[in-house]
Amino acid sequence: MSQLINLLQASPPLFAICAGVLGLVVGSFLNVVIHRLPKMLEREWQVQCDELSGKKTEPLPPYNLLVPGSACPHCGHKIGALENIPILSYLALRGKCRKCRAPISLRYPIVEALSGVLCAGVAWNFGFGAAALGALLLVWALLALTFIDADTQLLPDSITMPLLWAGLLFNLYGAYTDLSSAVVGAVAGYLILWSVYWLFKLATGKEGMGYGDFKLLGALGAWLGWKMLPLIILLSSVVGAVVGIVLIVAARHGRSVPIPFGPYLAGGGLIALIWGPALTHGYLSLIALP
């Protein structure tokens, strides 16, 4: 084991490749999380509603991230290990179920590929160590949140809250910033969007975003520190505005149709994780007085 660790420390390209392969494997599991976690929450809420109303219901069959096993949603065909190899299985099956030939969503290999590429990128950027390990965890959490929010407009507390505490723990020894900056970042990240939410609601009577967005920005502040919050907000707002305008112009969304903000916060956070210091330095250099 020590020889392997020494090899990974001495060879950044090898470490990046190993992280990329790990990212592909975890990306396959993230597809399960993205699909099942909202359904698990819905079942939990339904049970709670039934208990509060005094309604008697039959116990539901087990349904979590491990049970039941993965199956084709069209014919129920159980997906074997050879059919679940990241990207390769999708290509070998030509994007169709082996039994009923129903199409398999392109999202599955996209999530796997994104996970692999991003994991390789952060491994190359940080090198072997605790910072790279934390960055991998952050990438996986943000990918899951991005696609869950895009599907359901939910950012589950079961991901955002552990993510916030994990950011503080990694910064106990300054993995990305000092602990005081991380604590202030967590508080400021939450309060910034909380304030925007209430100002917008008082001005328009409508809710402009969800509480999950507050928690996600707070988590990003815990990981990257308060100094990165302006950059994250700027990046996510610009991308979100551009995408929103494009969707409206293309008539795919009406002006009244809400657009989830979580994916843009996640994207801004990933950019800040990798290129944040360089972008901040460049921005400050541009506005510096002669």
Describe this structure as you would to a colleague.
- 69% of the residues lie in helices and 0% in strands.
- The protein is globular, with a radius of gyration of 21 Å.
- It has ten helices and no strands.
- The mean pLDDT is 88.
- It has helices at residues 2-10, 12-53, 88-92, 107-126, 130-152, 157-170, 179-204, 211-224, 229-249, 262-287.
- The protein is mainly α.
Describe the protein's topology.
Elements: H1 2-10, H2 12-53, H3 88-92, H4 107-126, H5 130-152, H6 157-170, H7 179-204, H8 211-224, H9 229-249, H10 262-287
Helix pairs in contact: 2-4, 2-5, 4-5, 5-6, 5-10, 6-8, 7-8, 8-10, 9-10
Keywords, please?
10 helices, 290 residues, 69% helix
Provide a quick synopsis of the model.
By secondary structure, the chain is an all-alpha fold. It has helices at residues 2-10, 12-53, 88-92, 107-126, 130-152, 157-170, 179-204, 211-224, 229-249, 262-287.
What share of residues are in beta strands? under 5%
Q: What is the share of helical residues?
A: 55-70%
State the assembly state of the protein chains.
Answer: single chain
Class inferred from helices and paired strands: mainly alpha
What is the overall silhouette? Answer: globular
The overall pLDDT, averaged over residues, is 88
Q: How far apart are the first and last residues' alpha carbons, in Å?
A: 54 Å
Question: Helix count, per DSSP?
Answer: 10
String of helices and strands? HHHHHHHHHH
- How can the largest sheet be summarized? none
